[in-house]
Amino acid sequence: MLIRRSPDLTHADVTPKSVYLNRRRFLQAMGIAGVAALAGTRLIDLISPSRNVYAGTKLTTVKGPFNTDEKITPYNDVTHYNNFYEFGTDKSDPAKNSQKFQTAPWSVSVEGEVAKPRTFTMDEILKLAPLEERIYRHRCVEAWSIVVPWIGFSLNTIIKLVEPTAKAKYVAFQSFYDLKQMPQSRGTGLDYPYVEGLRLDEAMNPLTLLCVGMYGETLPNQDGAPVRMVIPWKYGFKSIKSIVKIKFVKGEPPTTWSRMAPSEYGFFSNVNPAVDHPRWSQAKERRLGEIFRRNTLMFNGYGDQVASMYAGMDLKKNY
Amino acid sequence: MHKVLSNKWTKVVVFIICLAPLGALVERALHGRLGANPVEFVQHATGLWTLRFLIFTLTITPLRKLLKLPELIRFRRMLGLFAFFYVCLHFLTYIGPDQSFDLAAMWKDVAKRRYITMGFLGFVLLIPLAITSTAGWIRRLGGKRWQVLHRSIYITAICGVIHYYWLVKSDVRDPLFYAALVSILLLWRLGDWLAKKGRLAPAKTEMSRASADAS
Fold first, then answer.
1. B114 CA to chain A: closest CA distance, Å?
2. Disulfide engineering: A230 pairs with which of A145, A202, A211, B80, CB 3.0-4.6 Å?
3. How far apart are CA A219 and CA A22, in angstroms?
4. Cβ separation A31–B37 shorter than 8 A
5. Domain parsing of chain A, residue ranges
6. Structure pTM?
7. CATH number given to A56-310
């Protein structure tokens, strides 16, 4: 098992973002005019610090539970290779098209079958609990994966505050949607706003992270700013981005990908190497930065924390 | 125009242009600009260029006839062979990084995944065309039989677009664009063939038969 309570890899081991960005610049410079150009770039950097459009605000964190000691995926890869269909379907589209996305002011409405419905402003969310850094594996349904130092706290912190009633059996999430800010969402084949859902026990699981940052900072726009879910034992599309609504409901809520192709994307969508996508295998995955594929782990390696929730269920049927 | 097209150096220039997509990949690789998933980047680029070169190859005959530029035929074999070249690179990214050179696993995948089956079929059908692309093979097979064999490029092109369509998750705009191009090129041939048949049926002259052979 790769999960540890006390990781020997901490944020101090994460290569600083500036190093990755500099490496990129280094390679570019080498391509143009070699070492001289490199020196030039460095000088320019000293005069006018690089305008870092992806940078967020630094967040103070405590060490969270459930960290993996695997090598963390470079920040630049996580921010320039991902899916956020509202900003286009190419992996590089979110970084390109989300830079003007307005994420402040922001609030999240928590409603439905709860005793104390409430709207949280982003400031309130950031102060609800100590922000933890958790290094999770993240597996996309497209068979690639990353390792990310997320920042946030267990979703159950908020759930306990609003007090779900006995009728609440599921949690429905909704993303922000504004065609004016997301014109690239047209023609992507999905219905918006993006919606997702969890069973209440899944939402209560301590692994289920309400995420407000990564790599020591607030979330960049393309990765779901300002607040998103991270559910590491499920395929990436379950980890809904840029949340505006969390609603407690009686029945299983509709979810975007399942609505688009019910035979390909189920409500649970737990990472499962034994249950293939109808069109491709889920047995292996390519970790970004690697050439050959590695074996995919059941529940993405989080079986100790989550397998008991699915005891007795046919996971082939409940894919 | 006729002069430029029949100039021997034009062929050299076209050859170099056809290598540009590979050059661009190499340049990106050398400068670390293949993105976060380099294997996928190369796989997608070589796949797309295969489809594009198939389309270029299929465009020669209609262009030749519509623009009355018979010299264009000089470039068809080269374009077809470049389609084969890029599909070989595409296949290498599959058998290598995707399947770790495990042939047994590859066969299972080819049999099980319909988009892989479709892509593999298109690839395999191109192999005999690449082998018999020489003047010697045209002689050995005879022009008529050679032509029939080489019409299987139509099937490869169709396999290519279906392979692409079945691969994408929800945004089918690009696959549909290529499907439309292939459809236009194949429908033009159907129209051309029907028109010729119409002409041929009432008056079976030597001349109309000769023009039918030229396609």
1. 7
2. A211
3. 21
4. no
5. 14-52, 56-310
6. 0.83
7. 3.90.420.10
